[in-house]
Amino acid sequence: MERRAVITGIGVVAPGGPGTKGFWDLLTAGRTATRRISAFDPAPFRSQIAAECDFDAVAAGFTPREIRRLDRAALFAVACARTCVQDSGLAFADVDPGRVGTSVGSAVGATTSLEREYLVLSDSGREWLVDPAYASPHLYDYFTPGSIAAEVARDAGAEGPATIVSSGCTSGLDSVGYAAGLIAEGSADVMLTGATDAPISPIAVACFDAIKATTPQNDEPGSASRPFDLTRAGFVIGEGAAMFVLEEYAHARARDAHIYAEVTGYATRCNGYHMTGLKADGREMAEAITRALDASRIAPTAVDYVNAHGSGTRQNDRHETAAFKRALGPHAHATPISSIKSMVGHSLGAIGSIEIAACALAIEHGVVPPTANLHVPDPECDLDYVPLVAREQRVDTVLTVGSGFGGFQSAMVLRGPRAVAS
User: Fold this and answer.
1) Which CATH superfamily is domain 5-254 in?
2) Which residues are catalytic?
3) pTM for the full model?
4) Digit-coded pLDDT (tens) for 175-215
5) Is the separation of the CB atoms in 111 and 119 below 8 Å?
6) How confident is the model at residue 161 (pLDDT cuts 50, 70, 90)?
7) Which among 47, 128, 177, 278 has the fewest CB atoms less than 10 Å away?
8) Do 243 and 7 contact (CB within 8 A), yes or no?
9) Distance of CA 197 to the CA centre of its chain
10) What pLDDT does 13 receive?
């Protein structure tokens, strides 16, 4: 019997609003959550804006010890995991813990804590030889990103497969794709999966400044993230997390669980070309899309909505537009496409999972989120990028894509209960 993977629980920590509802309200209203960085003084940097989460760890239920021990990205992941478990209604005490796995994506792991510890140990860079006695006892966990997956597993009591997926900005797609594969092959019945990143730190901002990937439009933080707009000048860095209860279909049906969507297809490719460069023809992303559609056993014409990577860099937006045309053919011009990075920024490895959450909610509510700040469409990006205003329509099948440093290109197809049943 074919084993299928369905989403039965969603948990989101994102800029602009508390929880999953706040996140969805922001998207459907077309509001932006980008602002001047408050986590540190951004004055020395070229790009001084970000999409920050107003996250209260105490209000989220964490103890002082947990707050001291866990990196911000780990706090996000555990908070989202707790929320998605509650949303799923699954009683974990009734499930064999060896059949519950964990798959978490993260591009930069515990960056915030690592930078903080470096500043302490080196006296803000003044000391070359450091005294390890000043180091946090939790420093090892900050060095090993896998500790985030372990924290999620420990908190939930999951004793099945546990892994961290770190493939740059496609991590959030790849972690869920990996989890779906474990369910399909029979290694797990339930997976806690998603991604987290908290990269708003001086070292990360400086790195993106150096390659001029982030926008210098500091005077207009609310409108600085402009995917597919002729006046775009780079992406806005963000932070956040999304986690899901991914469950084998028969297992979910047996307990009459609410199903948001099924992961019916996933594929990933590497362009083997350049760390940050993208070929204009979009071939590798198009191949990932085609493979994901083939795995779903559907034609391109079945796609109702495309969640674009839409970072707001010129080469990405052109590359992606070409990929959609190549993979979807004439249907690319008839399909609404949008980028939620225009509203919540680019949270690196986390964004792929945050976008999966947006796709599942688009299916659930029959609403396509808009691309905010799209006032002057780039003639080279000539598809329907849903400018400014959300669009109500039936959404049964969604394609979501990601593009990451290193040449990674990933695509996933999500189908709602109506589409799967038909």
Assistant:
1) Thiolase/Chalcone synthase (3.40.47.10)
2) 169, 309, 346
3) 0.97
4) 999 999 999 999 999 999 999 999 999 999 999 999 999 99
5) no
6) very high
7) 128
8) no
9) 9
10) 98
